[in-house]
């Protein structure tokens, strides 16, 4: 395995600042943590795309190893990373303080006590917000792909961690995550509040008000989810009711369509029998019935090639002609019957005979 220089970053709040008589700033804070972290391949000296990311696992047995924690004692404090390990050649230009004492395990984190001695560095913390810490260290990297207990996959395992310095950085450069924070004035260390997330995972939060805020946020989110589910159930009930109504309407519509279809077929057959008496209509399609009737009445036309609109128009015209012819026939028959009714019967005396009898047989007065 190759030992290389690496830098980690962690965020802290500016809350536990104390000053000694010399004006030096004493600040305890979390510097590093266990778990997985993302690195660029070039940071680890790996071949391939230098900007590709790899996941490195920092197991507790390595982070909290006695030799690793002991390496915090006397490590330098810098403003920004010097770009290399702090050494005798760059010490005067880079170091602004030191870490006093060995690192201490604090949950998943390593806590260390920083002493910042340089006035400009102290001003950077107070006025410019240089409140994040980034550990500079050497470590060995073992290529051993695996999965952590929480299911996170990793590519390398970090071993033999040795701290060289802790850099003060502006906000927003935290590799270890924003749970790393500067402590308050409690000499026994901060009381951690455990908050159970909606996923069931429990996390520890240092500030009680922040813990309360997180818990309240989770409760409100859970209520929103519950309300949203209730609204979805209500809408689903409405949809189910509407679906049932639609099914009933479709059934009723189908009955109406069947009735209308039967009427159309019956009417077409009745009219077709007048246009083409004696033809047997074997279709239940009104248009086909019309075609069959027209084919009988007007065989010279290819009715199979005509459009439905054309067939219907011709059928209506043919039916009107039949109706007109029948009407004329009825009228002639009625006139003939009326004429026959006006003819004299044998029992009646002709008019001229009656007139002659008045002169030949005068009545007596």
UniProtKB/TrEMBL annotation:
Q: Which Pfam families match?
A: DUF2213
The segment annotated Disordered runs over 328-365
Name the source's superkingdom. Bacteria
Here the segments flagged for biased composition (Basic and acidic residues) are 328-351
**Name used for this protein in its record:** DUF2213 domain-containing protein
Originating species: Castellaniella ginsengisoli
The organism that produces this protein has a lineage beginning with: Bacteria, Pseudomonadati, Pseudomonadota, Betaproteobacteria, Burkholderiales
């Amino acid at each position: 395995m190759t030992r290389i220089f690496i830098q980690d970053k962690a965020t802290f709040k500016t809350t536990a600042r104390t000053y000694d008589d010399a004006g030096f700033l004493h600040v305890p804070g979390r510097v590093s943590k266990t778990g997985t972290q993302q690195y660029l391949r070039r940071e680890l000296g790996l071949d391939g795309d230098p900007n590709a990311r790899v996941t490195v696992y920092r197991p507790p047995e390595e982070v909290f190893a006695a030799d690793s924690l002991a390496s915090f004692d006397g490590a330098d404090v810098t403003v920004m990373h010097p770009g290399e390990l702090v050494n005798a050649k760059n010490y005067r230009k880079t170091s602004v303080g030191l870490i006093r004492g060995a690192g201490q395990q604090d949950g998943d984190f390593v806590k260390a006590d920083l002493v910042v001695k340089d006035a400009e560095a102290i001003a950077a913390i107070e006025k410019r917000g240089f409140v994040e810490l980034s550990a500079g260290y050497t470590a060995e990297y073992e290529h051993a792909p695996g999965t952590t207990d929480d299911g996170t996959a990793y590519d390398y395992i970090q071993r033999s961690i040795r701290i060289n310095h802790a850099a003060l950085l502006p906000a927003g450069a935290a590799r270890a995550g924003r749970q790393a924070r500067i402590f308050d004035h409690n000499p026994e260390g901060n009381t951690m509040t455990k908050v159970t997330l909606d996923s069931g995972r429990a996390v520890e939060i240092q500030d009680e008000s922040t813990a309360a805020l997180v818990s309240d946020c989770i409760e409100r989110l859970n209520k929103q989810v519950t309300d949203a589910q209730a609204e979805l159930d209500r809408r689903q009930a409405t949809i189910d009711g509407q679906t049932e109504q639609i099914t009933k309407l479709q059934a009723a519509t189908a009955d109406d369509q069947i009735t209308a279809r039967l009427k159309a077929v019956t009417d077409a057959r009745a009219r077709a029998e007048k246009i083409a008496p004696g033809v047997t209509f074997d279709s239940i399609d009104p248009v086909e019935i019309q075609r069959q009737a027209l084919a009988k009445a007007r065989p010279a036309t290819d009715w199979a090639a005509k459009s439905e609109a054309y067939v219907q128009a011709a059928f209506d015209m043919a039916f009107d002609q039949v109706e007109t012819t029948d009407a004329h026939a009825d009228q002639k028959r009625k006139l003939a019957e009326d004429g026959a009714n006006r003819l004299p019967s044998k029992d009646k005396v002709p008019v001229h005979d009656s007139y002659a009898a008045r002169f030949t047989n005068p009545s007596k007065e």
